[in-house]
Design a protein that fits this description.
elongated, alpha+beta, 15 helices
Length: 439
């Protein structure tokens, strides 16, 4: 049972609604047609899309105060897809069409029970009873009209339309040039692999049939696959003059420029495609190409799945991805000091190092005070954490969830905040001691 033939079964028997075309601001025609330029058919463009979708699919969904929805997003969003496939599919449709719709299938109480990315098909915004609907026209002629509130909508190159993202026409020229370059190289190889020349007969006034017969015999004898030696032998009545064919083809630099145009359009690089990004390069790639999509998807889920009252009580969907997995081993080991300073839990660091959790790893530990019993004193000023950042603020930068104790400032040397330097605790200066003895 495919998507188009199972709309009634999967979506609760929804039927097509009649309505008038939705009029956008500026009277823009609110219809969407999939891009026909063959973006996904090009190998370079597909590599870019695959790289973005593969890294996006590694994110973990977190539904705060809603473990059922979190389990749905992570394990099985719909009949056909697991959590990774769902994110991969959404990101692929997003890049290829610049617009992706995800249908929210709800139970009788309005709770989301499955999420279906709508396949690539024409769509139209319609109005019925003052409400906005999207009508999808599938390849088999079947239609589905879904309410705007039941659709997650993510758009890229969001400019002309209020409903849909713009098309990928901007990259058409580069795709066509790259395809033409590839075909030109193939034809050049084929043309240079054959013997080419002019066959001249010394006999005078040959008929057209004789000329054709002599040419065909020469081709059959010397230009066929059976002539593996590459040597031809002629008598004095025939003269063959070879024609040196040197077709013009694009240089490596020209092809590289076309590939770079496509890379820039999708926001990836050769290193990203080959999995060579680490450290700052990976951080930049994640911030510019992966995180914006996850933020948009989280916001759509939060608004479309939950009511205003539920959002008021803190229900929210976010997607988290461990950027620290792509750090070098030296930088990973430097994170040990964050465990010492109660910013990371031991098990979180062990996960980054690809180590299994330990029973004590979910409790914060201090390097100087692992048992929590020390009543330390402040040491030298340059050895003291100066309460510049809260632990949860740093955890947010590291893309880690907040912890209960993370909103209180902590000193590294004084985790309990109990140390107080008192004048009585200080040793008297030498001058003061001499003065007291004199008295």
């Amino acid at each position: 049972m495919n998507f188009r033939g199972a709309i009634a079964a999967l979506f609760g028997g929804k039927k097509d609604r009649t309505g008038t075309t939705w009029r956008e601001i500026g009277t823009y025609n609110s219809r969407f047609y999939p891009f026909q330029g063959g973006v996904y058919a090009n190998d370079v463009a597909r590599s870019c899309v695959h790289t973005l979708a593969e890294h996006t699919s590694k994110a973990n969904a977190v539904a705060r105060q809603d473990p059922a929805l979190e389990r749905l997003l992570r394990v099985r969003p719909n009949l056909y897809m697991n959590g990774k496939d769902f994110l991969y599919k959404c990101r692929t449709l997003y890049e290829v069409n610049n617009t992706v719709f995800v249908y929210i299938n709800r139970d009788e109480r309005g709770r989301a029970i499955s999420l279906y990315p709508v396949p690539n098909c024409p769509a139209e915004a319609v109005e019925n009873g003052g409400r906005l609907y999207i009508r999808f026209q599938f390849a088999g002629g079947q239609k589905l009209t879904a309410g705007w509130d039941d659709l997650l909508v993510l758009r890229k190159h969001y400019n002309e339309s209020d409903i849909f993202g713009d098309s990928n026409n901007a990259i058409t020229t580069s795709l066509q040039l790259l395809d033409t370059t590839g075909q030109g190289m193939a034809n050049a190889i084929k043309s240079t692999a054959n013997l080419r020349g002019i066959l001249k007969s010394t006999k005078a006034m040959l008929s057209d049939d004789d000329i054709k017969r002599q040419k065909d015999r020469f081709v059959a004898d010397y230009l066929s696959l059976e002539n593996s030696s590459g040597i031809a032998m002629l008598d004095s009545t025939v003269d063959f003059k070879a024609v040196d064919v040197k077709p013009e083809i694009a240089t490596y630099e020209h092809v590289g420029q076309l590939r770079e145009n496509i890379y820039r359009y999708f926001g990836v690089s050769e290193d990203a495609i080959q999995g060579k990004l680490f450290g700052d390069a990976w951080e930049a790639f994640y911030d510019s190409a992966i995180e914006p999509f996850l933020v948009a998807l989280g916001l759509e889920l939060t608004y479309k799945v939950y009511t205003d009252r539920q959002r008021g009580f803190g229900n929210e969907v976010v997607f988290e991805s461990s950027r620290m997995q792509y750090m070098s081993m030296d930088n990973k080991l430097k994170l040990i000091q964050l465990v010492d300073r109660k910013t990371m839990l031991p098990n979180e660091l062990r996960a980054i190092l690809n180590l299994p959790p330990v029973p004590w790893g979910d409790e914060p530990l201090f390097w100087q005070d692992p048992k929590g019993e020390a009543e330390g004193k402040l040491q030298e000023a340059d050895n003291v954490d100066r309460k510049t950042m809260l632990p949860n603020e740093l955890r947010a930068i590291l893309n880690l969830p907040p912890v209960p104790w993370g909103d209180e400032p902590l000193f590294w040397q004084d985790p309990k905040g109990e140390a107080e330097l008192k004048e009585t605790d200080k040793e008297p200066e030498k001058g003061e001691e001499d003065a007291s003895q004199t008295e």
